[in-house]
Amino acid sequence: STLPAVAEELLREIRKAFQETSHVPDDLLLGLKFIFGPSAVPALDLVDQRSVTRVRSPSGRTLYQVLGSSGKLYTCYSSCHFCTCPAFGFSVLQKSESLLCKHILAVYLSQAMGACQELAVSEEQLTNILLAEEEDEG
Amino acid sequence: LCRGGLAERLCRLQNRERSAISFWRHQCISDDKILSDKSGVLTVKILEIFEECTIQVAICQQLEQSPATLSPEDAVINAEEPILKVLFTRETAAHLKSRPQDVIHIYPPWQKLLLQNADVPVIMNTYFSQKVLLSEHSEAREKTYGLTKTLIRKNILSLAQTFRLDDLDDKLHQGSSENQVPCAPQIHNHGDSKQLPLALSAVNDSLLEMVESQGAVGWRDVQVRVVIQRVYCLPAREGCRSHTQGNKPLCATLIANSDPPNVRLCLLVQDAYGMFSEVQLQSLSSTDDIEQYCRRWEGKSCCLAGMKILQRTTRGRALGLFSLIDSLWPPVVPVKVPGQSQDSEMMTTDLPPPSFCYILTVQSGEIHVEVDEEEQISNLYQPPAVHGLKEILRIDGCNERCSFWAQVLYRRLQTKHNVPIDQREILLFVTDSTLQNVVHGIPKVVAVSVTASCVLSVEIMEALSAGSRLVFFKDALWGNGRIICVERTVLLLQKPLLCSAAGADLSELTGPVRLDELDSTTQASSVCALRGTVVGVNESTAFSWPTCNRCGNGKLELCPQDRELLYCNQCSEVVTTPVLKMQLEVFLSCPSRSQSTVKVKVWHEISIALFVLLTMLLFLQTYEVQSVLGKEVGLLNCYVHSVTSHPNCVALEEIALL
């Protein structure tokens, strides 16, 4: 497969450019648009709004919470590409139309630009966040 | 979209690109000749196509630049020619309808990306692509092909693989402190230790311009000159957005459990255009410095550098911040009006109050806030307007910031059972000469509620418990008939150097403080004075205990050696003459509130009025209710616990004023 490697490399370039110049050049932004299509602008908007939080528990487990534009909080996993938003279920899982949803992309971009908020929680609290997703779906 | 943010930038770029693409496509149709500018054109022959998500991936061979004479049949696959992976968006692919063996021209601007572990370069941004149709033969073939659908293999991608953005070396540096402020701050001040020379460009005087031009990612190279209007501390949870899931706030409960007091020093600054911004600086290890910072920094100019935007907030979302901004509006001197030219004629004070405000924070590493401490106070500075309490009580408005200087008479901690210590609310009863010197009509004492979001220094806390102190309340909030201290309110022990005291009397109170007498208007959670006659005693509440005469410790123990003696483990000594404390609830008949049953919890030690009576009773080891009844009691200072109408009862507790 090609696309994941391309996406990864593009995000790495963004991170490198940002670390060196605190700035993301236009061509990389356009590259994001090319690869991720309609998710690019909403993902960047989420980064601008500092909507991504890395949640960490003492054992080292992490996950990401993204505050969506509607005010809903979505959970993205760190260990694989998964997001609790409906767009992920539809575009990525069902139709294989996208590689990522805008929230997962926002997580990567926030990582690349040091824009993640940090939240330390207990093991129990992390578990509750994960289990809460189950309740909603059930 | 955030103004000046990355999303907005990409939108603009994308719109430009879209126009360029449609213009180009139009050109291609109308002008059959291939565009004359051949530089940068990539010519490829497609070997294989497959799809991944909506991107079409074409494995191609790069061909030499001689498109005019090239025909598909002539282009023999030469093993020497480099292989490329060309990506097309769904739209471009639909437009091209490419097949293996097709030759495509890719016009600039396209992008090449080299992957880490792969030899084959990837070509992206291939919007400006055109298939080469070189002979009539191929045109006809093209038309037939158009009728039959080719099946293109679609790769399903695994979600198991996440992206690694950092290199292994970076892993050490990528800590969790990306958005946290270092605890050992280095604030650079003029006249203080040497500063690091920053290679910065000229100083700007507009916050908005800086924000718009630099975007959300930070202003490494630019300085902005602003005036510090206010210095205060915010509890740390203000810094991160409280995420809520359903109705369960995550942030608030967590911060309360952390041990070090998480408090951030913040500045409210204003630029030459009158625009405000809240700058959140480092965490303070001790809140005692706040008074120092206020004194040294308020009113001075400073240069900000190395900041980044944390948030852009609006009036509706940050009422507390905007009530403070409103108290500083309109500006006291004319401010510049943003325009093309920066001539000084364009100055005004007639502007509507701000509706948005940027909250800035430290980018990383050191904070660059250079305060010109030596310089004079700026003209733009608006010191807090100090008023007497009498005037404040008369303010007609809600959420108005007010400042006053008052004597604290009594302090009460409001602790509710489920609320952690951090969420404490303190009730202070204060007065000043404007309230004390009035005969009637307004209360003599006013309650000031201090919420948990108002950061109090250790100094203030000690002062409040020690004795009656004069405290300066800066930027407290008045509304709904109450004064409350919230975030951005600062309590100080010293009189401010500069303040516009509009008729306020900042002198100390002469003479004893008087409280309002208990009457029909007395409400719960207030203080009052009362006098009356004992009409009953609640025998079940009578309670006495010995206390240490040295330290007042109420938990004395029996001496292990001699069980007849008492021992204080705080003093580590035997208590030979303990002070007996008694608590008793009496019912009084008060002429000032004759309709109610008045129940007062009195304390032996401080109640001079009942002292003789009760010691007599103790001495006799008996007591007759009769002997207490009819006794006159007054004037007791009390705190009102509750006032009920059915039954008509007021429950009070005798208190000692500070």
What does this structure look like?
The complex is a heterodimer of chains A (138) and B (658). By secondary structure, chain A is α+β, with helices and mostly antiparallel strands. Chain A has one domain (5-131). Chain A has helices spanning 3-21, 26-36, 40-48, 86-94, 102-112, 123-137, and strands at residues 52-56, 62-67, 73-77, 117-120. In chain A, strand 1 (52-56) and strand 2 (62-67) form a beta hairpin. Chain B has four domains: 6-21 and 39-65 and 81-131, OB fold (Dihydrolipoamide Acetyltransferase, E2P), CATH 2.40.50; 203-235 and 263-332 and 353-382, OB fold (Dihydrolipoamide Acetyltransferase, E2P); 385-501, Beta Barrel (OB fold (Dihydrolipoamide Acetyltransferase, E2P)); 526-654, OB fold (Dihydrolipoamide Acetyltransferase, E2P) (Beta Barrel), CATH 2.40.50. Helix content of chain B is 17%, strand content 34%. Chain B contains twelve helices and 37 strands. The two termini of chain B are 54 Å apart. Classes of the chains: A alpha+beta (138), B alpha+beta (658).
